[in-house]
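Hi team,

Filling in the usual template for the complex we talked about on Friday. All components are listed, including any nucleic acid strands or ligand strings, so the model treats them as one assembly.

SUBMITTER: L.P.
PURPOSE: interface mapping
COMPONENTS: two
RESIDUES: 850
SEQUENCES:
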Amino acid sequence: MSEKADKFAKLKNIKTPEISKNRQNASIEAAMLAFDIEAQKTAQKENSKNFQGNGLVHRLITIFNKNDRIFSMNKWIMDYKLPLGVAAVALIAFPVAWQLTSTSSLIGVKPDVILGEAKSKQELTSTSSNDVIGEAASNADFAPIQKQNLAKDTPAVTRFESDSVEGVSASPKMTRSLEMVALSPSPIPNLQDGDKFSDEAESSLFITAQNPVSTFSIDVDTASYSYVRRQLENGILPNSDAVRIEEMVNYFSYDYKTPQDENVPFSQSVEVYPTPWNEATRLLHIGIKGFMPEVSEIKPANLVFLIDSSGSMNAPDKLPLLIRSFTLLLNQLSENDTISIVAYAGSAGVVLEPTKANEKRKILKALESLNAGGSTAGGQGIELAYELAKEAKSKGSNNRVILATDGDFNVGLSSSEELKKFIEKKRDDGISLSVLGFGTGNYNDALMQTLAQNGNGNAYYIDNFKEAQKVLVEQVQGTLTTIAKDVKIQVEFNPNTVAEYRLVGYETRALKREDFNNDKVDAGDIGAGHTVTAIYEITPVGSSAISVDALRYTQEKPAVVSGNADEYAYLKLRYKLPDEDKSKLIELPISVNMAKDDIADISPEFRFGASVAAFGQKLKDSNYGNKISYEQIKALGQGAKGEDRFGYRAEFLSLVDLASSISGEK
Amino acid sequence: MDFYVLENKPLAEFDNETLVAKAINGDRAAFALLLRQNYILIYKIAYKWCGHKSDAEDITQDVCLKLASAIKHFDGKAKFTSWLYRVVLNSVKDMQRSSISRNKRHEAFAEINQKTALPEQEDIMFTLEIWQAVKKLPQKQCDAVLLVYAQELNHAEAAQIMNVKESTISWYIMEAKKNLKGIL
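RESULT (copied from the run log):
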């Protein structure tokens, strides 16, 4: 007997392997999010009675019906084990939906009021002084059914009303939706009405014989993907202007070959393969990966946080998320780095003079002291921020203003053009600008893009804590350290082999042919370890897909064969090293032999990129690529998830499902 | 931000019960600290029941998420850790029902084997054998044995966790020994 007991006693020798700190932090962050959601639910339950019987309940029901999927997904995650990424995304869906419904009406209210006192919010609306949002948004509760992109919802609304006539003995689904209504204090998530996007036509098709050269600036921004994700998670198909395909593709890091030599700060990989959405064409897929310097070689960072603390930032997914995001960033910095903080609202002010990044307490205290209130004096704030950046500049430091805002600047340098010029000038003084966008309802995407593109910087849209983690922790070096600037790509197509071509995305990044060699023309930057992808859809000569007929009266000149009939194109890439003004050139011929006949033969990294591009085109309702089904897109991405360490690719696949169910298309 | 401020205070200032009470009232800092304080315990329990690092991490995450909503159901009748044990064991059961983990099961304790010096390996293999045998026992006997021997709790504590009388724990363990007589 005792011998047996001894044997069991061996069990105490089981040693648990060390826990991974990252995993621990991630789990706790996720749980905190879940905790916040619970708190909101509780608060909302208490207030729900004020909103029942409101005629708007009908509309809400239709909206939440759309979101049913998200809620059931949430439950599903509780029941089964999923990678954190997916869990966090699903969890965020609820507060985001709720958030959307409350943002505009809560302008000017302190965060604690948001949870506790939702019932008094209608009175408080009038305390808003943010003239940018204007009447339309703050009265959205009672606005007639939404404008622009919610137009798609209208049929659903009508359908519900006829349902409700048929009988109040609701279906189980309806009952559940009603519960959702009870949890949601204020109606209609339509406030993306206030979000501004620039309207760019899709890159068009070119006939190689007439326009053999395509030139563009690279784009490492990812804001569009996060925005699209957020919209989908709210059960809304994004406005097609909000979809920038290159930003969606570039949201993901691809395992392209790593650059070997730091003097050539990046590598290029090219594949040519059949187009998933068109049998008769091919994709020419260019992947660039930036060099990742050793930690010891990273320059000290001189960062100025320029924080929008205006009234419109007063929402859990804005200022509080921003503060938590900066805290994450802070943890990545060391005593060599300097932080300053400028807040702008009403009047711009220095919240924290340049401080060593290891004085965390002091910095955190300054961050905590921020309160949302007042209007947005962005122009003044930005001047002040650049002054501080200049002050704290040291030899060899990486100087950067990080602007965090939900959108607008309405005092001082308020015209976009003026602001743009100011930032361009500062860029030449060696101070870059990164833009972090927060929230919806007031989000000025166009302005953010302009600012980042002209400030040698990058724009990110932070819709949740996980995104903050991606931008400010996992890819922090890419966000902060530029390894090459003014990176331009020029592709010359061979009319003997390529009849027509089209660049997928990059609409806002097109350059003139002559700009390529002009070092004065600004272009995008690549951060440490960044990957950038560009995809051309090419129509080979003799393909059935050639869309432009030959002319009847004018005999087109035969292309001049320069002896390279076995090449599709010639790729040229120009870049400047961060401290240099003269550009360098990389050239690479793309031979016909490189083409693969089966998409299954190419590396999963390229396949995944193709599936993201296909999804972008689908959402944008592209003239060229809208025929592919969501199912096909998913199948393409499914087999190409790769290592997917942080679950981003799995999340992408679930977004494809979501888009499919929202649109009712397979 | 309160989350980060609290973190800097010595942990000993707060006992679980105080933190739970605060968390139920919506104090997120208290909830965060509660998770941090108990994370390792949750992870250790999970690991000893499932024998696989990444499964244990998944379970731990699952438990953390569940606690966000479940915490308000903690009624203070039992010790918080006893209650927590129950939440973790339920989560382990859920996990073992799902097919995802089934594929991984055969590599139980693989981490240990790889990282250990040769002389210890035999001992570990023996421990593993016992553990595998215990895992095959009926659920309640298995839980009782692991609580008492792997977690080194006394019978009273195990009884509270399993919500049975102390004598029942002794009985489960006796049954377990009987069942394994031929094997061990």
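MY TAKE: Residues 21-194 of chain A form one domain. Chain A touches chain B through 46 residues (CB under 8 Å).

Thanks, L.
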